[in-house]
Amino acid sequence: MCNVYRPVGSLTTIKSHLQRNNVTGLTSLNELITFQNNYSASRQQIISKHELSITQEKNDLNSEISQLDQLIKVKKTDIEEGLRKEIEQLKQQLHCLSTSSKNIIRSLINYFKAHSLKRKIRNSELNFDSKISFELDQSINTLTEKNNRYHFITSHFNDAVQESSRASLWELERKKKVIDEINNSIYGAIGEQKVVKELENLSNDYFLINDFCLSFSPAIYNRQENDHIRSIQIDHLLVSPFGVFLIETKNWSDQSLNNLSLRSPVQQIKRTNFALYKMLGGEIPGLLNLNQHHWGERKIPIKNLIVLTNHKPNEEFQYVKIVTLSELLSYIRYFKPSFSSTETQVIAKYLLNLTNNHFA
Hints:
- By secondary structure, this protein is an alpha/beta fold.
- Helix content is 60%, strand content 14%.
- It is built from eleven helices and six strands.
- The protein starts with a strand and ends with a helix.
């Protein structure tokens, strides 16, 4: 089985984008695509859930209102009876109080007590209704709130559902917007993973480095193209006993192939080839005598390969081979080995260290 290093670049882009935008619970490409496909159904599911919730709330309110109304009536009766009992007790105390006494001091005390009792009776009678209202105030307010809510749900059911489901729908819409922003990366990652799965069928003499990236300072100058190359990125770099394959994957539709605004993968891969050719032209640490042969210096062949997982153009392109997914392995295996397993491993290790240091 082929040795595989690093996740595919599009998948890394996707995960970073989701983390930055705090989208959790979607950990695979299948889950992302399922989310997109089921968006309308998920939206309706949220609405239906809140319709049931609001209906249940309405039924609960109807029962609670009836119970609370009965409770207030009972409580009011108890309060009224209690207040009347207090007034009656005050009147009895007044009746039993005698202000006529031979003891002038006692008579004076009783006089003031009687005056106080009369004032309490008068205040209790005047404030009878207000005391009842005060004791029932919290219960009545609660009843009013429940009645208002019940009438709102009854009269404006759809508005109540919309209000209840707003936060969940907003979060669903936010997730969809975040995921739609990386639609190209999602379908790119699908294509790249298809290629990786296909290349895994190669033997362990092959080494696959996904998302191979490098930066150069100073820039590498391509005189023929008048191009200063400051960085390169390729979807897959396959180190084989034959040499190195630069593989760019495109999961493009037929419409995308004809889209003039999309960057040409042919130019991209040729640019990467030039930079890599310059890098591999010298001595590679750990690979003894790579460039030494009695006929002269050996070279590391570099092949440019574009894999189209959907549609393939009919045209052929100079220095770049375009294949479908089903043609990929037969093309790679066509070339005869020119490096030993040890040499292949050292070349792979050298390139892997370069791209790992790039991300360090």
